[in-house]
Amino acid sequence: MTIKVQTENFDAGAEIAEISAKSTNIGGVCSFVGLVRDSDDNKSITAMTLEHYPGMTEKQLAKIEAEARARWPLDDSLIIHRYGRLEPGDQIVLVVTASAHRKAAFEACEFLIDWLKTKAPFWKSEETPDGTKWVDAKAADDAAADKWEE
Amino acid sequence: MTIKVQTENFDAGAEIAEISAKSTNIGGVCSFVGLVRDSDDNKSITAMTLEHYPGMTEKQLAKIEAEARARWPLDDSLIIHRYGRLEPGDQIVLVVTASAHRKAAFEACEFLIDWLKTKAPFWKSEETPDGTKWVDAKAADDAAADKWEE
Amino acid sequence: MKILYFAHFREKANIAEEDVDLPEGVADVTGLLNWLESRGEGYADAFADRDHIRVAVNQEHVEFDAAVKNGDEVAFFPPMTGG
Amino acid sequence: MKILYFAHFREKANIAEEDVDLPEGVADVTGLLNWLESRGEGYADAFADRDHIRVAVNQEHVEFDAAVKNGDEVAFFPPMTGG
């Protein structure tokens, strides 16, 4: 169970390998890497800056991870979230989950990314040809987070 | 869109990095690594040997991958499946999917692993303290594959 | 009380962080917002659309009826957009 | 016709692959299974439990009523356990 909030890039393969090696009873390791896109809704994006709330971010991510581990039998889990200025193609976030069974690994991984989208105190501003603007929260992200509330 | 059926190990991180770099409009890369477990149902497993049907395997995996790409807007996808003798902790299978949006990446990745479990001609035999035996197909795997038929 | 402003709240109020003494009668988040708005145009502009204000007290996300007191750390920010 | 046997079918029939000439009257998978069973104890043992037989003709998964003819590649195997 690891949380890292950092400006530096990360090596998804190294993290997956480290988690995979933690127990020989892990049957599946699911991972998700979120990347900066060069456009959204036909609007081109040259860079994205992520701001966060140091202290609260780590607490919220730890809470979300604890919730995942209460819901699914996980051998391990990891969240790495970057902040600062990033460009298209750059990695933003990594979530890794390991379990004896694949269904738990998949569900927990998707849950973690869905919840951190709406419950971790990060804010994004995008640089576009029309200037820099704050990214609005998306209704689709709220809906994705809410589906785990049942 | 890549299919590899091989005895050699694979580098999940290198594959994820290669796929992530294919387009700067990829927003999410989901991956799943399946590993040999050291036990199942309290029975200890010292090794697993995977046999497959060369020719048909590649065709079936290509069909399954084409189905995923028809159902979800994927920028890329990859399946690597090993065969031969493997030991606990060894990697068996890798599935990677890339899409502009995370939901498509997650669903397609889970779909690919669910379908290849029951539709790709692989068979496993396990070495246990009681001898070597063929692994029976699991009802849970059939159910997981069926949920995508709707 | 320490107050933190994030994203467009920081830009509009033109401040990232400040220490304030709570005036008498301010006991919850709504009261705090009303008082802050009265402190100048930047604050008034930042807090005009209350539907889009999210608040944390001592790093816990809370509603507007949550109590606040001197010594607390209060943060104002828009809906989160992580991931 | 080329016949391939996988997993426990290969072990019980004690053969991985063979070329056979289809006898007259054998036109579908069920007919082929009946004929193979008559060829010896190993085959009979392998094919006793038909519920657990899966078959591919020319590398396509088919049902027992599928047609077979000389020149085809037919494979017998148990339910698949990939991944």
What does this structure look like?
The complex is a heterotetramer, with 2 copies of chain A (150 residues) and 2 copies of chain C (83 residues). By secondary structure, chain A is an alpha+beta fold. Chain A has one domain (2-144): Molybdopterin biosynthesis MoaE subunit (Aldehyde Oxidoreductase, domain 3), CATH 3.90.1170. Chain A is built from 4 helices and 10 strands. In chain A, β9 (122-128) and β10 form a beta hairpin. By secondary structure, chain C is an alpha+beta fold. In chain C, 27% of the residues lie in helices and 23% in strands. In chain C, strands 2-1-5-3-4 form a 5-stranded mixed β-sheet. The longest helix of chain C is centred in the middle third of the chain and has 9 residues, at 29-37. The relative contact order of chain C is 0.29. Chains in contact: A-B, A-C, B-D. At the A-C interface, α2, α3 and β9 of A face loops of C. β2 (28-35) of chain A pairs antiparallel with β2 of chain B.
| Neighbour order of strands in the largest sheet of chain C | 2-1-5-3-4
Measured between the Cα atoms of the first and last residue of chain C, the distance is 30 Å
- The arrangement of helices and strands of chain C along the chain is EHEHHEEE
Q: CATH H level of chain A: which superfamily? A: Molybdopterin biosynthesis MoaE subunit
Overall mean pLDDT of chain C stands at: 96
Multimer state: heterotetramer
The CATH topology of chain C is what?
A: Ubiquitin-like (UB roll)
Count of DSSP H/I helices of chain A = 4
What would the CATH topology of chain A be?
A: Aldehyde Oxidoreductase, domain 3
List low-pLDDT spans of chain A: none
